[in-house]
Design a protein that fits this description.
7-stranded mixed beta sheet, single chain, alpha/beta
Length: 274
Amino acid sequence: MSKIRFSILPHGHIENDLAWNIAVPNPASKSNKNSSAQWISVPSFSVLIEHSELGYLLYDTGSCPGDERERLPPYTREFFPLFADRKDFLDKKLEELHLKPSSLSAVIVSHMHWDHSGGLKFFEGTKAGENVYVHKKDFMYGLCVTHQSPEVFAGGGYFKDNFEFNSLSFRFVEEDENFADGIDIVTLEGHSPGLLGLVVETLSGVYIFPSDSVYTSRNYGPPECFPGIIYDTLGFTRSIAKLRRLEKKYNAQIIFPHDPEQFSTLKKSPYFYE
């Protein structure tokens, strides 16, 4: 068995109405006709994986510098503001571990929404930039909606510029596959037309990263709760069922992408789970 360890790299946080994460979380009622919205802060992070045969790999990339200021359109900055300092972006997080984007061999992007793909900018002209794994359906959908729109931001989360970073080579994934010894890519759906989750086996146990197919443990349930942002509700349900099978098969821990309660309990870089 290959030796694998991973580190969680925080990239600041996004604030938004809880209703985007949990559909109708605080419904009004006869006795409370004016139920108020709940403004929350959710984490953004990527996962650095060290594999004894492949070296360093990355799962997701965080956002792009400028997204916390003027790069994203006003609507997104109003409803989903990113709070991050320059030190929170991927290149600086790698520097803290004495690494560079050129130190990595591959990048697996769960899906092309702005807060997961913007860090691809740092891989222009690198070996990892020649090995960027994405879900074909998600990539094609995002490419289509952004390049048919006169706006730079379209389709509920796709940023046109994130498809136009220089000298990147995308490798399309459509089915589950064994990426390497101890690392499996699993295809999920619901949040977008297609999404790549990751199953990582370490000596201490198996971890599942579902990315935005399931935002939080509250979405996962039981009972499962639909998010307010969703592409396909039936796909979401199928993803939940698939993740439950994997969780049971491997006695795995699921690490959710935007769960502030769970995130507060996780150890972050420079710590490595082994």
